[in-house]
TrEMBL record:
Keywords: Membrane, Transmembrane, Transmembrane helix. This is Thioredoxin-related transmembrane protein 2. SUPFAM superfamilies: Thioredoxin-like (SSF52833). The keyword Membrane applies. InterPro entries: Thioredoxin-like_sf. The chain crosses the membrane at residues 12-35, 95-113, 236-254. The keyword RNA-binding does not apply.
């Protein structure tokens, strides 16, 4: 029921559902006007498309690190296969579906993972207060994201799930939305440009000082506040950073 409610309430899922469901209506209508050999050829291609989609979905399910990434990739495969099948019926139908998917891409956005685990959504002022007041946990692992980035959406599940396993009195998790607070990007040395590959950025703080980040700081004097770096004293915290790194790397390697 939760997924059904989400599919009906989220425009991204709802419009995709309508687009794919419309094929069955078009298919039943086309059966009365197509030649028998064309219908037979179309039926064979439909079976091949279903088998190909099933294989790709199983492979992606075994390889993906997050459900959001799996949904994005399976929808992409389904759209490609639907366009291919539509070409058999009529190229005008394929063109129509291409326009529909383009409009969906422009007007809607895939929702990010909504649950927080034990992590907290923070404003830059709240983060600064937690880091400097000295009365909270010693370490903070903070994800800086912007939900206009598809990479951030695909990785949006990683930090909440890590927080459930590793959160304790010495380690807290936080999320800062750079889409809402773009000025914080410059303060923490993060580029909002998608070509720089800096989204999302994970920074580990110890007592208000940055001890590590992923991806690494790669600018040379372009930003006014370069990060403070020192050796991580705790192997478990290093493991957390590495886990996040592997999640993002897997997402890139198997995106296609």
């Amino acid at each position: 029921m939760e997924w059904l409610n989400r599919m009906l309430s989220e425009p991204y899922y709802f419009f995709h559902f309508l687009a794919f469901f419309s094929y069955f209506i078009v298919r039943s209508s086309a059966a009365s006007v197509l030649f028998p050999h064309t219908i037979y050829h179309l039926f064979r291609r439909e079976i091949q498309a279903v088998l190909a989609f099933s294989v790709l979905a199983v492979v992606k399910m075994a390889r993906e690190e997050s459900w959001e990434d799996f949904i994005a990739n399976t929808l992409f495969y389904a759209k490609v296969l639907l366009l291919g099948i539509s070409l058999i019926i009529d190229y005008h139908l394929a063109l129509w579906y291409a326009v529909v998917f383009l409009v969906i891409y422009i007007l809607t956005q895939q929702p990010a993972f909504q649950k927080l685990g034990t992590s907290s959504r923070l404003t830059p002022l709240q983060l600064e207060a937690f880091l400097t007041e000295g009365k909270t946990t010693r370490f903070w692992l903070v994800e800086f994201r912007a939900l206009c980035s598809s990479t951030c959406i695909r990785a949006s599940r990683c930090l909440p799930e890590l927080s459930i396993t590793y959160s304790n009195k010495n380690l807290s998790f936080g999320i800062v939305d750079l889409g809402l607070f773009p000025n914080a990007a410059e303060k923490f040395g993060i580029s909002l440009s998608g070509s720089m590959g800096q989204l999302p950025t994970y920074i580990l703080f110890e007592n208000a000082a940055e001890v590590n980040r992923f991806p690494e700081f790669s600018f040379e004097g372009n930003l006014p506040n370069p990060p403070i770096t020192k050796v991580i004293p705790n192997e478990i915290l290093l493991y957390l950073i590495q886990s996040l790194m592997l999640g993002i790397i897997w997402s890139f390697l198997f995106h296609l």
